[in-house]
Amino acid sequence: MDPGDGDAVSAIVNRDRRAVRAEGGGNMSLLAVARRVIESSLRGGSAAAVLDGPALLAVGPAQLSELAYASRQEVDTARLMSMVRMNRQGDARRLADEMRASWPDARDRGLAPEIPLARFVALSEAYAAFAETLHALEYASLAMRLSEEVPDPRWQLRVLGVGAAANALNGEWAIAEDLLARRSELAAQRGWSPQDTGYSEAVAGLLLAFACTDGQRARSIAVQLRSLADTEPVAAPLGDLAESVALAMQGENAHAIDLATRTAQGIPLLIGTELVREFAWYLLGYLYLCEREPVRAEGIVRGKSVLGNHLLCPNVILAVAALQRQDYREVLAVSSECIRGRARHSRWSLPLILLVRACAHLRLGNPAAALREGGAAFVGGGIEHFSAALRIVPLHDVGPLLDASDRVFPLLRRQTAIYRVQVSRSALDSKTSPGLPRLTKREQKIAGMLSSRLSFPEIARRLHVSTGTVKSQASSIYRKLGVVNRGDAVDMLNLAGYYEGAEAVP
């Protein structure tokens, strides 16, 4: 427990002692505290109930053992919620695993449905925080079924948010979006503001905003999260992460990198689940890959451990970085663990790993392996909807793979056509997108002249530099754009609208 929690705990304990005398028993007071914490997680929950968390965690095993079965379920649920809120990850995991091992129990049949419903919701959120997305999905599904027996619409709203978060974490984009839409419809039916959001649905919305490179959505979620900070302390760092995603989608990479770094380091607030901080580190790696700075991206994630079912997988960043560096054997080496454990992968990371490996195989002269793994990415991956991922894969590597697939597997041309459109859009869809790498002022001048009919010597004379300097700068532009020649660079810059409004070079 943080030192600063001591005063809060003392105040709550003293308050509860007074309640004990009034209510006639310590267990009744403990149950009242637990119910306040659970209630605070619902729409309109009290911010004051957040202070009950430290008191719940201070309860010893002896007092817990005196509780009746139903009361123990409520108290354990509230304790788990408080542990996640307070970033007590080790304690939360131990309690979640204990609750998981003790269920099902014959005594559950006599419980009011709200009690197991709250337990399933708490377990789903806890396992999501541990990046154990399959367990998160399991308990979200149980909560969805049980919520039909609970008439309180606030619980239905809560369950839809938890289900959306679990599915988004597992890369199930369409299901997550559907659950969020159902949540918005329910809120509208009840006359609640569509801007009111909970922590879980904010997690889901942020993941979807990042996947689809929707900066406006990320910015809206950042505002909503900051309004939640009183009742959900971990919402503050997640709000900062949402803001950094919004900045990245709007091309403000320098600011995005600064804010993501602060979030990853726990600055300025030393709170937030480890999952939020880990996402911040991986966002940093992603941003450096967008900038075509693979070495810096590698430095960010090297040594990071794999979380859960490779939800956050350092090998993804390392493999893409190696592809950008054109070290194709390294691509295969760093991703081999992912292929051996592919059954454990979420849909976030596996499709991108397969696509990057396929590009590497093709460059190394292994077309059969390239088509096998590329075909798996095309058919079952869903990566064509993950435009954020496609921004960091060099176009000159993906293009030949798509061409080879069309020749060998003509039935896949529909899928590869989707990829071609998405890759082209994602690589450089606007001047301010993170897909457009940062160019120096000299590179910007030369990029503006590449579309002209001027030769490199002629460009050099106009800029009063040597031809070697122009060639060097052009090569740097090609590398940052992920292409190999002037024509492809012009095509990509033109696709991005780079030349719109620019004065034509005679």
Keywords:
disordered N terminus; 506 residues; mainly alpha; 68% helix; 27 helices
Q: Report, as a whole number of angstroms, the end-to-end distance.
A: 69 Å
Low-confidence stretches: 1-26, 428-435
- Element-level helix/strand string: HHHHHHHHHHHHHHHHHHHHHHHHHHH
Taking Cα atoms only, what radius of gyration do you get, to the nearest Å?
Answer: 26 Å
What does this structure look like?
The chain has 27 helices and no strands. The protein has helices at residues 5-23, 26-40, 52-57, 61-65, 69-85, 89-101, 114-129, 133-146, 153-169, 173-189, 199-211, 215-228, 235-249, 253-264, 274-290, 294-301, 314-324, 328-340, 350-363, 367-380, 387-390, 395-408, 413-427, 441-450, 456-463, 467-481, 486-495. The radius of gyration is 26 Å and the shape is elongated. Helix 1 packs across helix 2 and helix 26 (467-481) packs across helix 27. Residues 1-26 and 428-435 have low confidence and may be disordered.
Task: Kindly summarize this structure in a few lines.
With 506 residues, the chain is an all-alpha fold.
